[in-house]
Structures are given as C-alpha cells and as structure tokens.
C-alpha cells in the first residue's frame, strides 16, 4: 500500500504564546508535531505493518520542519517530503496548502492518505477534506478505528461522541481523531535510523506552481490572545441564600437571565 | 564552538521528556512514599532502547553518545530522582566497565542483555570500611585453579537486588611495592554464596534499590576478571569519571525541576496582594536558581562532549558532578523556601527534590572527594 501522512508543525499550545505586532512570536515557541497528526503517523505505521507497503510523511513548512519529519521517521515512517515554501510564499491559508498538496499528489499512486482531524494552531479541519475533493477520492473525517480488507475500508467515525460505522473503498483520505490509537514514542534505534531514511526537499517550483496559483483566498485581519480569565467567585453561606445570590448575580451582574 | 544539539540528541531528549512526563512523573510521589523500585518502568525504558544509549548496536545498544545519555538522565531526573539514579547507575556503573574494559566474550555475554534492557547490572565498590577511600577495599578474590574465590562485604550498592550481574571490586594480590592490586570481577547474582539484602531506610532516592552484598566463598571463573589484571584500580577510577557526568546530569534535572516548580508557584501565589514573583527577594532567588541550573548543564554537556570526542574529561567531570550536585541541593532548598509551608509538604514534591538531591553530593564521590580530584588535576 502507498500510504501518505499529512503532517503539520505547530507550536506547542501548552507553552506560553507571545504575540508581537499581530504575529505569533516563533523564536521562543516550542514546535511539535500537530498532536492529531501523531495519530495519523501511528495509524499509517500500523496499517503498513499489517498490509505491507510504504509510509511517506509530507509536510509543507520551512527549513526547520525537517525536525518534525525526522521524528515521524524515527517513529517508523519510511520516507519524508518537505515542501519548503518559506522563500516563495508570504502567507498561506487552507487553499494554499490544499493547492500545493494537490500538485504534489498529481502523479502519485495513492491508496491511503491520513491527516489529523485539525491542526491545533488554526483548527480549521479543512485541508484533509478539501484535498480529497481535489483528488476526487473518498474521505472520512474524525475516525477512531480503521480496518482495511483489500479495497474495502471499515471505519468508526466519531460524531460528537457517538460512533458512526462507515464502509468505503480505497483510495481514501481519512482524518484522525483522538482515540484512534496511542502514538508510540520514537525508540532509540528508530531515532538512530531516522537520519539514514530518505527525505526529499521540494519547493513549489518543483511542483510547477507559481506564487499566484496558490495565493490565499482569505486574509488574517488580526491575531490576539483570549482575554485573561477573571478570578472566579465562590459563594458562601446557606445553600438557599447562595442560590438567591447566584440568581441575582446572573440577572444583574452577568445579565444572562 | 557550536552549542546546537544534533538531530539525534534533540530527538532523544524530546522522547525521554515525553516518556518521563507521561509514564514516570505521575508515579513519582508513590515511588518515593512506598520506596518501591519501579522495575516495570525499567522494562519499558529497555524497550525504547534507553538502557543502551551509549553502547554500540553490536552489543545490543542504541549507538548514541554521552551527550544523548546525559540529556536522557536529566529528563528522567527532572521528574523522579529515584528512577534517575537507578537509570544512571545501571548504565554508568553496571554496564560501562564491561564495555570499556571487557573482552569480546564478556561484552557479548554480559553487556548485551544490559544494553538491551533485559537485565540490570550493579557496581559494588563501596564497603563498610572503604567508601571515599576505595583503596582500602577489604574484599578479596583468591585464585584457586581456574576460579576466583571471593569473600567480603559491599554496602550501599544501587540496583543490586534487581541485578543479574554485579561487578565487584576485590583485592587480587600485591604489586612489586607490596600495595594491594584491586580488580573488578563480574559476579552473576545467582552464584552460590552471594547474599543481597536491601533493608536500608533512606532519606531520599527511596525508590532506587540500594543493597548490601555479602560474598561468602563465591566462585567465578578467572575469565570473569574485567580488563588488565594489574590495572583494575585505574580502570574503575575512569569508570567513576564517566559516572560523574551522569550524576551531574541527574543533578541538573533536579536543579531545573526545582526552578520550574518554584517559578510557577511564585507567579501563582499571592501574598500582600501581589504574586510572590513580584518581590525582589524572591526574584533574586529565582535568578540564581536559573543561572546555576544553566551553568550546571553547560559543564555537564561540556564534560560529555569531551568524552565523546575522546579528549580527557576527568577534571570537567569532577567540576560537573560537584557544581551540579551542590546546585541541585541549593535549588531544591530554595524551591521549598519559595513554597513556604506548602513546600514542606510531600504533595508539592519540592521537599522530595531536596531529599533526593542530598544523595548526589555523597554518591559516586562526595563533594570533598571531587575537590580532591580537582586539586590533584591542578597539580596539588
Ligand atoms: C543511595 C546510595 C547509593 C549508592 N550506590 C553505590 C553503588 O552503586 N556502588 C558503590 O560502590 N557505592 C555506592 N554508594 C556508596 C557511595 O559511593 C559512598 O557512600 C560514598 O562514596 C561515600 O563513602 P562513605 O559513605 O563510606 O563515606 P566516607 O568515605 O566515610 O566519608 C564520610 C565523610 O568524610 C569525608 N571524607 C572522606 N575522606 C576524606 C578526605 N580525604 N578529605 C576530606 N574529607 C573526606 C567525605 O567527603 C564525607 O563527607 C551509594 C551510596 C548511597 C547513599
Ligand atoms: C509544620 C508546620 C507547622 C506550622 N504550624 C503553624 C501553627 O501552629 N500556627 C500557624 O498559624 N501557622 C503554622 N504554620 C504555618 C507557617 O507559619 C507558614 O507556613 C509560614 O508563615 C509561611 O506562610 P506560607 O506557608 O503561607 O508561605 P508564603 O507566605 O506564601 O510565603 C512563601 C514564600 O514567599 C516569601 N514571601 C512572602 N511574602 C514576601 C515578601 N513580601 N517579600 C519577600 N518574600 C516574601 C516567604 O518568605 C516564603 O519564602 C506551620 C507550618 C508548618 C509547615
């Protein structure tokens, strides 16, 4: 099977994020593999181990994105592709990403593409489905189980906490939801082998794309941090009085009633 | 000069950090309270190749370097001193002497299972009456035909109750000047005459196994001697040089964890209407803690780098062990202070950091002995 994983480098949202001049400061940010993409990498490796074939991890990013690719290789992926857009593109949005990936997949044999459900930075959840549309293949989002038998795929899809059972056929794109698997730690032998695995470097040029072809369709107007949380209020006294006070606060202070 | 980690070093650090946070950290309080050696964690670390970082693949190792190993020890040390000590001792003391000085056969037979994480090894140097003064070793190994017959007693030996092999130092004879020749000999723990007890009630690193070993007419083949029969003492001194880097790294872990906890707490806790971190008296403590943790890390990594580049590193390893371990004690103490009364409570963990850190200024050569080593290097 030809298995591809779409992987994005994101900053660690558990770390403090600093915004400067309307841009997220990335000098001090810690970068990680988008956590949902880790499920995709793990699933890809498991499917390959079961059905044979090869796992290729693809990212669109900058020079430093090779770090996350190497980690995926250390986990057990076979090959990596870095599409470096740093020098060519000022901005990008989901359209840009999808266009580039469409060009990348143009003349490749694909059985299965795995992506994360969303990227935790922009959380659009669009790239997977839009790419599948462009490539004209089936897709299922937020999957929590995947069984492949020949050309048939049986999938559990998470629908707001319920499970939808879906049967579909390859070639297929899925986006991975928490619960699909437990991503492995890259082992030491895996880390040592990662360097020797092939990593292809591409620019949009190599995909016969011009800057105009991938110009974003959206514009980011502003980036800001959520308002700081105010300290909560703990009511005291008899339950009855507390309830009265709560109702009064909700009415008069919060004005939600 | 280049302070950048290599790709492998960075990935190793990140992987161990994730593993330590996910698997070890949630259990650190219990490991300490119950004083129970977390053997299952060591099995998992073995599967990830962590037990063999600095050994080549041909002996079941991962083919990493000393820097990667030091980074791994630091990350484990950040969350659990007990696991960190047992980890560092298993590699630096239990396995390294065989790698450095063992024969091909010894490496295949004894190093491979240790590097693969299938078994643990211990290094028994300290005796009731020979601690800092290792030259005062009383344990003897007499030749009888093709065998050594070993008699003596070792104390405070890390991991011994869970070990498959012990490396025991013993007097094997006298040199021309009539001085004792002390050698290191591999003793499988299932050999007849070996008794291992771990009844110590320790102040810190309570989940790290520490045991007493009694050797009564223990017979092992002469071929279990490690390295040059005349140069045993020199050999284990160089083993200790390497071990110091790992104790330094463990110290950096505790020093850094102390800072992290204290900083987070100082920003959160309000007294006099302001966060503690806004008081200059507290800021100065935090500044010192951050600076000393980073300086400790620098000297640990420098010593590791020297070792990896086959340059002499004895003095730097002593600097690293001494400075980092004393920093760990200071930082842990300050972390408690910044936590006030809460810091005195087990739940906040910083009191454990201090109890664990205290071992680091004693084990593998006390602070005094490090100063002696450094002074000797200065030509005193
Ligand atoms: C938890 C733990 C784990 C250990 N693990 C191991 C292990 O795996 N293998 C092993 O072999 N040993 C191990 N040890 C033993 C450890 O290495 C010794 O405790 C240490 O070397 C000190 O020896 P000692 O306890 O006999 O103290 P002593 O040597 O009696 O020292 C007592 C004090 O006197 C000072 N002192 C001694 N000589 C001098 C001098 N010449 N000048 C100035 N001051 C001096 C020391 O610095 C110290 O402060 C472990 C110890 C502990 C507590
Ligand atoms: C075993 C034990 C027994 C105790 N017994 C009693 C008792 O019987 N009765 C009782 O009332 N209390 C008791 N206490 C509480 C004890 O008195 C307090 O823990 C202590 O006063 C510190 O207060 P805190 O823990 O709230 O720390 P904090 O006040 O939060 O202090 C935390 C740190 O910030 C520092 N700090 C605070 N303000 C400033 C500032 N303005 N400038 C610079 N640094 C500052 C402190 O010095 C400390 O290092 C006990 C505590 C313990 C651990």
From TrEMBL, chain A:
Keyword Transport: yes
Cofactors required: AMP
Keyword Transmembrane: no
Residues annotated as domain Electron transfer flavoprotein alpha/beta-subunit N-terminal: 21-211
Alphabetically ordered keywords of this record: Electron transport, Transport
Subunit annotation: Heterodimer of an alpha and a beta subunit.
Family per similarity comment: Belongs to the ETF beta-subunit/FixA family.
Function: The electron transfer flavoprotein serves as a specific electron acceptor for other dehydrogenases. It transfers the electrons to the main respiratory chain via ETF-ubiquinone oxidoreductase (ETF dehydrogenase).
The protein's name: Electron transfer flavoprotein subunit beta
Organism for this UniProt entry: Virgibacillus alimentarius
């Amino acid at each position: 099977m030809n298995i591809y994983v779409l992987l994005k480098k994101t900053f660690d949202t558990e770390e403090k994020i600093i915004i400067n001049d309307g841009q997220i400061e990335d000098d001090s940010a810690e970068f990680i593999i988008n956590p949902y993409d880790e499920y995709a990498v793990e699933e890809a490796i498991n499917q390959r181990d079961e059905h044979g074939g090869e796992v290729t991890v693809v990212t669109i990013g900058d020079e430093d994105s090779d770090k996350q690719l190497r980690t995926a290789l250390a986990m057990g992926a076979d090959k990596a592709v870095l599409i470096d857009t740093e020098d060519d593109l000022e901005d990008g949005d989901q359209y840009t990403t999808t266009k580039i990936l469409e060009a990348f997949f143009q003349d490749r044999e694909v059985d299965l593409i795995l992506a994360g459900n969303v990227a935790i930075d922009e959380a659009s959840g669009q790239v997977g489905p839009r790419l599948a549309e462009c490539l004209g293949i089936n897709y299922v989002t937020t999957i929590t189980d995947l069984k492949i038998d020949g050309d048939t795929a049986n999938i559990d899809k998470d629908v707001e906490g319920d499970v939808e059972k879906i049967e579909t056929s390859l070639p297929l794109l899925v986006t991975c939801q928490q619960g699909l698997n437990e991503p492995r730690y890259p082992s030491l032998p895996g880390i040592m082998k990662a360097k020797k695995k092939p990593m292809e470097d591409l620019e949009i040029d190599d995909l016969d794309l011009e800057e105009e072809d991938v110009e974003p369709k959206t514009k980011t107007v502003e980036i800001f941090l959520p308002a700081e949380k105010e300290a909560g209020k703990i009511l005291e006294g008899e339950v009855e009085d507390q309830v009265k006070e709560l109702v009064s606060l909700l009415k008069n202070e919060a004005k939600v009633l | 000069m280049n302070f950048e980690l290599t790709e492998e070093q960075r990935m190793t650090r990140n992987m161990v950090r994730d593993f330590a946070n996910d698997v070890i950290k949630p259990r650190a309080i219990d490991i300490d309270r119950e004083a129970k050696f977390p053997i299952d964690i060591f099995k998992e670390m073995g599967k990830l190749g962590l037990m063999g970082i600095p050994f080549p693949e041909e002996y079941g190792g991962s083919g990493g370097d000393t820097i990667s190993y030091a980074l791994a020890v630091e990350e484990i040390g950040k969350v659990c001193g007990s696991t960190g000590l047992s980890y560092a001792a298993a590699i630096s003391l239990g396995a390294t002497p065989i790698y450095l000085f063992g024969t091909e056969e010894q490496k295949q037979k004894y190093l491979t299972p240790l590097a693969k994480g299938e078994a643990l090894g211990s290094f028994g140097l300290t005796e009731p009456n020979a601690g800092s003064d290792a030259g005062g070793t009383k344990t003897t190994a007499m030749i009888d035909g093709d065998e050594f017959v070993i008699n003596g007693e070792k104390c405070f030996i890390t991991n011994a109750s869970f070990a498959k092999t012990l490396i025991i130092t013993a007097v094997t004879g006298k040199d021309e000047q009539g001085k004792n020749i002390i050698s290191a000999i591999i003793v499988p723990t299932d050999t007849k005459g070996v008794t291992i007890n771990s009844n110590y009630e320790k102040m810190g690193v309570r989940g790290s196994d520490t045991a007493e070993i009694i050797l009564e007419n223990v017979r092992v083949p002469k071929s279990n001697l490690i390295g040059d029969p005349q140069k045993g003492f020199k050999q284990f001194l160089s083993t200790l040089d390497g071990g110091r880097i790992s104790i330094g790294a463990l110290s950096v872990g505790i020093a850094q964890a102390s800072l992290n906890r204290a900083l987070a707490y100082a920003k959160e806790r309000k007294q006099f209407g302001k966060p503690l971190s806004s008081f200059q008296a507290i800021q100065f403590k935090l500044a010192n803690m951050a600076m000393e943790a980073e300086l400790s890390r620098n000297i640990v990594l420098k010593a590791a780098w020297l070792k990896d580049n086959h340059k002499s590193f004895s003095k730097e390893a002593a600097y690293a062990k001494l400075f980092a371990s004393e920093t760990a004690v200071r930082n842990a103490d300050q972390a408690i202070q910044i936590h006030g009364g809460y810091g005195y409570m087990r739940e906040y963990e910083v009191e454990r950091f201090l109890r664990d850190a205290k071992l680091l200024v004693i084990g593998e050569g006390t602070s005094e002995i490090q100063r002696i080593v450094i002074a000797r290097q200065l030509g005193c």
